[in-house]
Amino acid sequence: MNLNHSNLNVCLMPLEIKWEDKAENLKTLENKLKLIHPNTDLVILPETFSTGFPSGEEKDYIRKFAEKNTGETIDYIKQLAHHYNVAIAGSFIADSAGSIYNRAFFIEPSGDEYFGDKHHLFTMAGENKVFSKGHKRLSVRFRGWNIAMVVCYDIRFPAWCRNINNEYDLLIAVANWPTVRVDAWNKLIPARAIENLAYVCAVDCKGSDKKGFDYDGSSMAVDFKGKDITVKVDNNDLLYATLSGEKLNAFRTKFPAWADADPFTLD
Length: 267
Hints:
Layout: E1 7-12, H1 22-33, E2 42-44, H2 59-63, H3 72-84, E3 87-96, E4 99-107, E5 113-117, H4 127-130, E6 138-142, E7 145-151, H5 158-161, E8 170-174, H6 182-196, E9 199-203, E10 206-208, E11 214-216, E12 220-222, E13 239-244, H7 245-254
Parallel strand pairs: 1-2, 2-3, 7-8, 8-9
Antiparallel strand pairs: 1-13, 3-4, 4-5, 6-7, 9-12, 10-11
């Protein structure tokens, strides 16, 4: 499917997370949104932006941070999306029928909401012992763009990110990816863009977690050739990129590698 040649203006927001302090993190988000460029269409937040990633904690402990889709975090996101007329994407700790999920969200200014749960759980931090895995990747059509979304560790797995028949134009990846492993993150982002002939916008967080891991906020927007197109326009730590549907369509037509992709199905 071809785009309508319109641009999509994206703001990447590598927030500094205060671990387990939901009120402070929501306040930080509101203050940052006051600074965004007025032409912004989409704001992307880090993984579990309102709490931080609860590495190594027991399920009963993590459950107190989990919310329904109608809870404080998503209700507040809806208010902010409407007020600033932007879509907002990120993830939060979700509670569904007693199970806990690392849940990606995409909230439109209209209040329309889309969710998808993290599929690949980070076993090295015990995420698989607490969280349930998702089985369907988030997808949404917004302002003429087909968008898919994955969460952190998911980006290491190209089959889960695979763009079959150009089903998406933009892949969003949100993360709490520590500095000690950030070189891998910075390489995986352009790799996913090149192999899928799509834009990738990836946002990491800043700060230090309870286990002593540091996060440097490494975030970028890359085009379908793997080129970093991120722009910083001031000193408020917000990053921007303008995604061109016309350029993407032209490249897919000129270099249709997507048509030669191997067919496969996921279990």
